[in-house]
Amino acid sequence: MDRRYGPGAAIQERDVAAERGTQAHNSAEYLLKTAQRLARSTAVRRDCLRWDTNGLERIPTRITQWALTHSHSSVPPVSWSASGYARSLTAWVVEHVTGIYASEFSIHHPAGFAGTADALLKVNGVDGLVLCDFKTTTRAKRLDADHSFVHQLGAYSLGLEHLTGLRCQAGLIVLARRCGPAQTHLIIEDELVRAQDRYLERVRCFYEALLSAA
Protein backbone atom coordinates (compact mmCIF):
# COMPACT_ATOMS: atom_id res chain seq x y z
CA MET A 1 0.00 0.00 0.00
CA ASP A 2 2.90 2.36 0.69
CA ARG A 3 4.20 1.77 -2.84
CA ARG A 4 0.81 2.64 -4.29
CA TYR A 5 -0.31 5.56 -2.12
CA GLY A 6 2.94 6.81 -0.57
CA PRO A 7 4.82 6.41 2.73
CA GLY A 8 2.63 5.87 5.77
CA ALA A 9 -0.45 4.79 3.82
CA ALA A 10 -0.44 1.28 5.27
CA ILE A 11 -0.23 2.57 8.84
CA GLN A 12 -2.99 5.07 8.20
CA GLU A 13 -5.23 2.37 6.73
CA ARG A 14 -4.51 0.13 9.71
CA ASP A 15 -5.43 2.89 12.15
CA VAL A 16 -8.65 3.71 10.28
CA ALA A 17 -9.66 0.03 10.29
CA ALA A 18 -8.89 -0.24 14.01
CA GLU A 19 -10.98 2.82 14.83
CA ARG A 20 -13.80 1.54 12.64
CA GLY A 21 -13.75 -1.77 14.49
CA THR A 22 -13.68 -0.06 17.88
CA GLN A 23 -16.73 2.04 17.08
CA ALA A 24 -18.68 -0.96 15.76
CA HIS A 25 -17.77 -2.96 18.88
CA ASN A 26 -18.84 -0.08 21.11
CA SER A 27 -22.24 0.01 19.41
CA ALA A 28 -22.75 -3.72 19.96
CA GLU A 29 -21.58 -3.48 23.56
CA TYR A 30 -23.95 -0.58 24.28
CA LEU A 31 -26.87 -2.44 22.72
CA LEU A 32 -26.21 -5.70 24.56
CA LYS A 33 -25.60 -4.14 27.97
CA THR A 34 -28.56 -1.76 27.71
CA ALA A 35 -30.88 -4.54 26.57
CA GLN A 36 -29.60 -6.90 29.27
CA ARG A 37 -30.39 -4.37 32.02
CA LEU A 38 -33.82 -3.66 30.53
CA ALA A 39 -34.65 -7.35 30.11
CA ARG A 40 -33.53 -8.14 33.67
CA SER A 41 -35.55 -5.35 35.27
CA THR A 42 -38.61 -6.32 33.21
CA ALA A 43 -38.27 -10.00 34.15
CA VAL A 44 -37.94 -9.10 37.84
CA ARG A 45 -40.99 -6.87 37.66
CA ARG A 46 -42.99 -9.68 36.02
CA ASP A 47 -41.59 -12.28 38.42
CA CYS A 48 -40.25 -14.46 35.60
CA LEU A 49 -36.50 -14.23 36.21
CA ARG A 50 -35.04 -17.69 36.83
CA TRP A 51 -31.55 -19.17 37.17
CA ASP A 52 -30.11 -22.22 35.46
CA THR A 53 -27.78 -24.85 36.92
CA ASN A 54 -24.74 -22.79 35.89
CA GLY A 55 -25.97 -19.77 37.82
CA LEU A 56 -26.86 -17.88 34.65
CA GLU A 57 -29.99 -15.79 34.31
CA ARG A 58 -32.92 -17.31 32.44
CA ILE A 59 -35.03 -14.53 31.01
CA PRO A 60 -37.90 -15.36 28.64
CA THR A 61 -36.79 -15.05 25.02
CA ARG A 62 -39.62 -12.69 24.13
CA ILE A 63 -38.53 -10.24 26.83
CA THR A 64 -34.92 -10.30 25.64
CA GLN A 65 -35.93 -9.76 22.03
CA TRP A 66 -38.25 -6.92 23.02
CA ALA A 67 -35.45 -5.31 25.06
CA LEU A 68 -33.04 -5.53 22.12
CA THR A 69 -35.52 -3.99 19.71
CA HIS A 70 -36.41 -1.25 22.21
CA SER A 71 -32.74 -0.47 22.95
CA HIS A 72 -31.62 -0.52 19.31
CA SER A 73 -32.99 2.94 18.56
CA SER A 74 -30.99 4.47 21.44
CA VAL A 75 -27.55 3.24 20.31
CA PRO A 76 -25.34 6.37 20.01
CA PRO A 77 -24.35 7.33 16.46
CA VAL A 78 -20.84 6.61 15.19
CA SER A 79 -18.67 8.26 12.56
CA TRP A 80 -19.69 8.02 8.93
CA SER A 81 -16.85 5.61 8.08
CA ALA A 82 -17.96 3.18 10.80
CA SER A 83 -21.73 3.59 10.48
CA GLY A 84 -22.28 0.76 7.98
CA TYR A 85 -20.30 -1.72 10.05
CA ALA A 86 -22.03 -0.71 13.28
CA ARG A 87 -25.42 -0.99 11.58
CA SER A 88 -24.55 -4.45 10.22
CA LEU A 89 -23.42 -5.69 13.63
CA THR A 90 -26.26 -4.29 15.73
CA ALA A 91 -28.83 -5.50 13.18
CA TRP A 92 -27.41 -9.02 13.52
CA VAL A 93 -27.68 -8.80 17.31
CA VAL A 94 -31.32 -7.71 17.20
CA GLU A 95 -32.26 -10.37 14.67
CA HIS A 96 -30.45 -13.39 16.13
CA VAL A 97 -29.74 -12.99 19.87
CA THR A 98 -32.26 -14.57 22.23
CA GLY A 99 -30.32 -14.46 25.50
CA ILE A 100 -27.61 -12.16 26.89
CA TYR A 101 -25.25 -13.43 29.59
CA ALA A 102 -22.19 -11.17 29.28
CA SER A 103 -20.70 -8.50 27.04
CA GLU A 104 -17.08 -7.30 26.84
CA PHE A 105 -15.68 -9.40 29.68
CA SER A 106 -12.04 -10.01 30.55
CA ILE A 107 -10.42 -13.44 30.62
CA HIS A 108 -6.99 -14.80 31.53
CA HIS A 109 -5.40 -18.23 31.68
CA PRO A 110 -2.44 -19.85 33.51
CA ALA A 111 -0.84 -20.68 30.15
CA GLY A 112 0.08 -17.01 29.98
CA PHE A 113 -2.48 -15.04 28.02
CA ALA A 114 -5.34 -12.63 28.64
CA GLY A 115 -7.88 -10.72 26.63
CA THR A 116 -11.40 -9.37 26.36
CA ALA A 117 -14.17 -11.51 24.87
CA ASP A 118 -17.02 -9.78 23.07
CA ALA A 119 -20.10 -11.65 24.25
CA LEU A 120 -21.56 -14.78 25.78
CA LEU A 121 -25.00 -15.25 24.29
CA LYS A 122 -27.89 -17.49 23.40
CA VAL A 123 -28.35 -17.37 19.63
CA ASN A 124 -31.33 -18.41 17.56
CA GLY A 125 -30.72 -21.75 15.84
CA VAL A 126 -27.65 -22.67 17.95
CA ASP A 127 -27.93 -24.94 20.99
CA GLY A 128 -26.31 -24.05 24.29
CA LEU A 129 -23.94 -21.26 25.32
CA VAL A 130 -22.42 -19.40 22.37
CA LEU A 131 -19.19 -17.44 22.71
CA CYS A 132 -19.18 -14.64 20.14
CA ASP A 133 -16.38 -12.61 18.64
CA PHE A 134 -17.24 -9.52 16.60
CA LYS A 135 -15.08 -8.41 13.67
CA THR A 136 -15.34 -5.92 10.82
CA THR A 137 -14.30 -6.72 7.27
CA THR A 138 -14.32 -4.95 3.93
CA ARG A 139 -14.85 -8.20 2.05
CA ALA A 140 -16.24 -11.68 2.64
CA LYS A 141 -13.82 -14.06 4.36
CA ARG A 142 -13.44 -17.83 4.32
CA LEU A 143 -12.35 -19.00 7.76
CA ASP A 144 -10.76 -22.42 8.07
CA ALA A 145 -9.77 -24.23 11.26
CA ASP A 146 -6.31 -22.61 11.29
CA HIS A 147 -7.48 -19.02 10.87
CA SER A 148 -6.30 -16.71 13.64
CA PHE A 149 -9.90 -15.61 14.33
CA VAL A 150 -10.82 -19.23 15.11
CA HIS A 151 -7.82 -19.72 17.38
CA GLN A 152 -8.63 -16.46 19.16
CA LEU A 153 -12.11 -17.72 19.98
CA GLY A 154 -10.49 -20.87 21.36
CA ALA A 155 -8.40 -18.65 23.65
CA TYR A 156 -11.48 -16.85 24.95
CA SER A 157 -13.19 -20.18 25.54
CA LEU A 158 -10.22 -21.44 27.55
CA GLY A 159 -10.13 -18.29 29.65
CA LEU A 160 -13.87 -18.39 30.32
CA GLU A 161 -13.76 -22.03 31.40
CA HIS A 162 -10.73 -21.42 33.62
CA LEU A 163 -12.37 -18.49 35.43
CA THR A 164 -15.97 -19.68 35.67
CA GLY A 165 -16.13 -23.38 34.82
CA LEU A 166 -18.55 -22.58 32.00
CA ARG A 167 -18.06 -24.67 28.88
CA CYS A 168 -19.43 -23.24 25.64
CA GLN A 169 -21.27 -25.48 23.22
CA ALA A 170 -20.37 -23.31 20.22
CA GLY A 171 -18.42 -20.30 19.06
CA LEU A 172 -19.56 -17.73 16.54
CA ILE A 173 -17.48 -15.21 14.63
CA VAL A 174 -19.65 -12.35 13.37
CA LEU A 175 -18.08 -10.34 10.56
CA ALA A 176 -19.79 -6.96 10.19
CA ARG A 177 -19.86 -5.58 6.65
CA ARG A 178 -20.01 -1.99 5.45
CA CYS A 179 -23.05 -2.88 3.29
CA GLY A 180 -25.50 -5.69 3.84
CA PRO A 181 -25.93 -8.32 6.55
CA ALA A 182 -23.10 -9.59 8.70
CA GLN A 183 -21.28 -12.77 7.71
CA THR A 184 -21.13 -15.48 10.38
CA HIS A 185 -18.84 -18.44 10.95
CA LEU A 186 -20.15 -21.08 13.38
CA ILE A 187 -17.68 -23.23 15.32
CA ILE A 188 -19.28 -26.32 16.84
CA GLU A 189 -18.11 -27.72 20.18
CA ASP A 190 -15.57 -30.22 18.81
CA GLU A 191 -14.07 -27.53 16.56
CA LEU A 192 -13.91 -25.14 19.51
CA VAL A 193 -11.94 -27.72 21.50
CA ARG A 194 -9.49 -28.06 18.59
CA ALA A 195 -9.17 -24.28 18.45
CA GLN A 196 -8.31 -24.29 22.16
CA ASP A 197 -5.56 -26.86 21.58
CA ARG A 198 -4.16 -24.94 18.61
CA TYR A 199 -4.05 -21.71 20.59
CA LEU A 200 -2.27 -23.38 23.49
CA GLU A 201 0.28 -24.67 20.99
CA ARG A 202 0.78 -21.14 19.67
CA VAL A 203 1.30 -19.86 23.21
CA ARG A 204 3.84 -22.61 23.91
CA CYS A 205 5.79 -21.78 20.74
CA PHE A 206 5.72 -18.08 21.61
CA TYR A 207 7.25 -18.57 25.06
CA GLU A 208 9.79 -21.07 23.75
CA ALA A 209 10.89 -18.50 21.17
CA LEU A 210 11.24 -15.88 23.91
CA LEU A 211 13.39 -18.19 25.99
CA SER A 212 15.61 -19.13 23.08
CA ALA A 213 16.12 -15.47 22.23
CA ALA A 214 17.03 -14.54 25.81
Topology summary:
Layout: H1 2-5, H2 9-45, E1 50-51, E2 57-58, H3 61-72, H4 80-96, E3 97-109, E4 113-123, E5 130-137, H5 148-164, E6 170-177, E7 183-188, H6 189-213
Parallel strand pairs: 5-6
Antiparallel strand pairs: 1-2, 3-4, 4-5, 6-7
Helix pairs in contact: 2-3, 2-4, 3-4, 5-6
Query: Overall pLDDT, averaged?
Result: 92
Low-confidence stretches: none
Query: What is the spatial order of strands in the main beta sheet?
Result: 3-4-5-6-7
The biggest sheet amounts to: 5 strands, mixed
Task: Report the total helices.
Answer: 6
**Strand content bin:** 15-25%
Proportion in helices: 40-55%
For the termini, the CA-CA separation is 34 Å
Order of helices and strands: HHEEHHEEEHEEH
Number-wise, the strands total 7
Shape: globular
Q: Classify the secondary structure makeup into a structural class.
A: alpha+beta
How many structurally independent domains?
1
Gyration radius over CA:
19 Å
What does this structure look like?
With 214 residues, the protein is of the alpha+beta class. It has one domain. The protein contains 6 helices and 7 strands. The strands form 2 sheets. It has a 5-stranded mixed β-sheet, with helices on both faces. The relative contact order is 0.13.
